[in-house]
Write a sequence for this structure.
C-alpha cells in the first residue's frame, strides 16, 4: 500500500473519532447542565435555609445546632439550600443528627411499630409524624445529591472527551501534513519488507 494512501485513510479514521468525541462531549455537557439546573431549581422550590451564623456561634449539645455540625454546615450558614453538596450536608449532618436524638433513633419503622403497640401514647404518635417527615425529606435531599453527582461525572467526562478530541485532531492534522509531503510512489516499509520475504522465499 502506498504510504500516502495509508496516511489519508488513517487521518479520515481519526477525523471520524474526533467527530464522535465532540458529539459525546456535547451530549455530556448537555447532561451536566440539565442535571445541575434541575437539581438547583427543585431544591430552591423547597425554600430551605440553613440556620443563621448566630445559631452556629451558640452551638450546644441538645439544641438546633450541635458542635459536631459546625465543620459540615457552618460554611453554609444563612444560605438557601440550592446545590447537591448542600443537600448532602443538610441531610447527613443536620436532619440525621436530629433524627438520631429521637426515640428509637428516629427510625420510622421502629417508631411506628412502637406507636402501634402503644396507641394511647400521644407523644409517641407525634414522633411518628416527625420521624416520617424527617426521613422523607432526608431521602429526597440525598436523591438530589446523587443526581448532582451524576451531573458532575458527566461534566468531567465531557472535559475528557473534548481533550481527547483535541489531541486526535492534532494527530489528524499531522497525518494529513505527512501525507502531503509523502511521494506518491513511496510504499509502506512493512509492505516492502513483506515483498522481500516473498521474493527471497
Amino acid at each position: 500500500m502506498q504510504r500516502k494512501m495509508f496516511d489519508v485513510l488513517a487521518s479520515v479514521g481519526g477525523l471520524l473519532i474526533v467527530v464522535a468525541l465532540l458529539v459525546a462531549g456535547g451530549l455530556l455537557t448537555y447532561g451536566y447542565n440539565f442535571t445541575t439546573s434541575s437539581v438547583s431549581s427543585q431544591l430552591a422550590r423547597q425554600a430551605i435555609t440553613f440556620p443563621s451564623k448566630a445559631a452556629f456561634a451558640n452551638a450546644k449539645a441538645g439544641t438546633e445546632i450541635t458542635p459536631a455540625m459546625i465543620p459540615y454546615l457552618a460554611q453554609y450558614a444563612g444560605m438557601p439550600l440550592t446545590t447537591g453538596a448542600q443537600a448532602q450536608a443538610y441531610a447527613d449532618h443536620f436532619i440525621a443528627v436530629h433524627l438520631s436524638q429521637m426515640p428509637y433513633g428516629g427510625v420510622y419503622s421502629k417508631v411506628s411499630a412502637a406507636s402501634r403497640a402503644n396507641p394511647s401514647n400521644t407523644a409517641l404518635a407525634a414522633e411518628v409524624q416527625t420521624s416520617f417527615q424527617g426521613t422523607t425529606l432526608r431521602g429526597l435531599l440525598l436523591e438530589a445529591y446523587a443526581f448532582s453527582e451524576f451531573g458532575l461525572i458527566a461534566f468531567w467526562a465531557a472535559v475528557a472527551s473534548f481533550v481527547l478530541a483535541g489531541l486526535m485532531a492534532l494527530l489528524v492534522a499531522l497525518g494529513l501534513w505527512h501525507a502531503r509531503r509523502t511521494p506518491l510512489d513511496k510504499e509502506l516499509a512493512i509492505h516492502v519488507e513483506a515483498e522481500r520475504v516473498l521474493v527471497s522465499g
Remarks:
- The chain has a mean pLDDT of 85.
- The chain is about 75% helix and 0% strand.
- The chain has one domain: 3-46+81-200.
- The helical segments are 3-45, 53-57, 70-73, 84-100, 108-117, 122-181, 189-200.
